[in-house]
Design brief:
The protein has 23 helices and no strands. It has 468 residues and is an all-alpha fold.
């Protein structure tokens, strides 16, 4: 797969997607920032003059992120719809610049609330724009692998934040992190708008040049028949999109649309209620509650590394094995691992003689994170565009991401409170039960979408020429 990316045809797509993912890495840092920092803020060593923060404040630190996510999804969906995906991408950098400035100068939890809101704003925009950007520029043979890079880069950011949060001074991290959004702005300015956005604006020549750039065709004399066929297909699709009637409620009530929306919302709900995002957010608190004899600092770093390993595994073979298969394996792994973590936690509260098994919760957490990396955390970026009919794909993706953020708000707000009231075992058993129910939906309802063209219409809809 790596050699395939380095081939002449694909390398510019690979480089462009990785340039865009600089902001994804920065977002990953904000996701993981809470894991090592919240225990610090709750301790007597807190950098804030007002003293340690409370469990209620912790829950708002976590959930403010999701409030920003809901706002960002809607805001950036409007931006990329009316101004293009490149403009939307560039606008992702500004809230990120502001949030690190707030953490740099802030001396109370209210600065963190604001910074977390802005981090979520970036995240909502990222999930609203980046998957569609990748879908627009990627060749269908590598779309799944390029889609997997989103979560992979988030996890690079997690690794950086888990490491830096444990070993660098609190106020040094924001100063370093200001570099990423600045570099992102510089690189994205060099990329052309996506061919499909340009075609929708009627800019045929610019669109062809854009597709030539992303297919690494240096001049018109090097154009191949495959390129000509792809571009003509895109033109026909864009023309049909522009000539369509306005979106109506009836477009959301067709069997294909209902099924697509159900699956899109389902994968978003599984992504959150499986507990993975909450575990990554509150990993420091969870490790303290587990009572493991291992240093939580090292375990956090190991968790981030295992997360990356899971994503790389998925990245390398997702386009061979398929989305449904990986999501099924991932859900089974997460459900079993969380069940084991819950069992250890339950016996540790009711039996003092299990100190020799203090390695079990660490192993269960690592297995949970690896299993999630195979599918639950990284499939949503390209399953959603693939299951939604073309006419409602944009608004359907926006609805799905808004709901993802709403689900994240619920889980992040409730998780620290549940840890305090029903302990780890009760909390993770709920998540394990969600995985068990989800297996039925994956097996009996969810279709396989590997290799599906994003310009295909369902056979029941009006046929379209130039489908590729």
């Amino acid at each position: 797969m790596v050699l395939e990316f380095l081939s002449r045809q694909y390398w510019k797509q690979f480089v462009a997607v990785n340039a865009v993912h600089l902001i994804t890495i920065a977002y990953g840092v904000t996701v993981g920032w809470t894991a090592p920092i919240i225990p610090l803020l709750q301790s007597t060593d807190t950098p804030f003059p007002a003293g340690p923060i409370t469990v209620e404040q912790v829950s708002w630190v976590g959930s403010a992120f999701s409030i920003g996510g809901m706002s960002g999804t809607i805001l950036y969906a409007l931006i990329h719809t009316y101004f293009g995906k490149k403009t939307g991408l560039l606008m992702l950098a500004f809230p990120h610049l502001i949030l690190w400035c707030l953490l740099w100068v802030g001396d109370s939890v209210y600065y963190i609330y604001a910074a977390r809101y802005l981090g979520g704003l970036t995240g909502g925009g990222l999930f609203a724009i980046v998957p569609l950007y990748v879908a627009d520029i990627a060749d269908r043979t590598i779309r799944g692998s390029l889609g997997s890079l989103t979560i992979l880069h988030i996890n690079f950011g997690l690794l950086a934040s888990y490491t830096a949060g444990n070993y660098l001074p609190y106020y040094l991290i924001p100063k370093i992190m200001l570099c990423l959004p600045i570099a992102f702005l510089a690189l994205v300015c060099l990329l052309p708008e996506t061919p499909f956005c340009l075609l929708r604006e009627g800019k045929i020549v610019e669109a062809e040049k854009s597709l030539m750039f992303y297919r690494n065709i240096p001049d018109v004399t090097r154009k191949t028949l495959a390129f000509e066929y792809e571009f003509e297909s895109m033109k026909a699709f864009a023309l049909s999109e522009n000539s369509k009637e306005k979106l109506t409620l009836a477009d959301f009530t067709t069997p294909v649309a209902i099924r697509g929306l159900f699956i899109a919302i389902f994968v978003m709900a599984l992504n959150q209620f499986s507990g993975i995002f909450a575990i990554l957010t509150y990993a420091g608190n969870i490790l303290e509650e587990c009572g493991t004899s291992l240093d939580p600092k090292y375990v956090l770093i190991l968790m981030a590394l295992i997360n990356i390993c899971g994503n790389i595994t998925s990245f390398l073979i997702v386009d061979m094995a398929g989305r449904k298969t990986f999501l099924l394996i991932s859900t089974i792994g997460v459900g079993i691992s969380l069940g084991i973590l819950g069992l250890h936690s339950y016996f540790s509260y009711n039996d003092d003689d299990i100190e020799s098994y203090s390695w079990v919760p660490v192993l269960a957490l690592l297995a949970t994170i690896y299993s999630a990396g195979l599918g639950i955390t990284n499939m949503i970026g390209f399953i959603v565009p693939e299951v939604l009919p073309p006419k409602i794909r944009s608004i359907g993706s926006t609805i799905s991401v808004v709901l993802l953020c709403f689900f994240a708000f619920i889980i992040l707000k409730a998780f620290p409170i549940l840890l305090e009231r029903i302990h780890i075992y009760g909390t993770v058993w709920i998540a394990s039960g969600v995985c068990a129910v989800s297996l039925l939906i994956i097996v009996f309802i969810m279709p396989e979408t590997k290799g599906k063209s994003l310009v295909e219409e369902d056979s029941k809809e009006k046929p379209r020429t130039g489908v590729y």
